[in-house]
Amino acid sequence: MSEYGDVGHAEQAPMTNPTTVHEVQADEAIVSRISLVEDQPLADRAPAFEQLVDELRAHLEGTDGEARRSGA
Length: 72
Prior knowledge:
Structural class: mainly alpha
């Protein structure tokens, strides 16, 4: 036990934080999407990855991505 108490066991606690659960689900969804893209023929991968990048960028920037796609 450390001088700060038994904090080392907090990492082993079950995930009950909704934010953490959502992040794990989002990570799994991204990995799944990447796997789907990688299974496509080589010529189709670039456009599929570009679409995924656009969607992720729009999510991170808090937009729907339409402004970037329309050239604005």
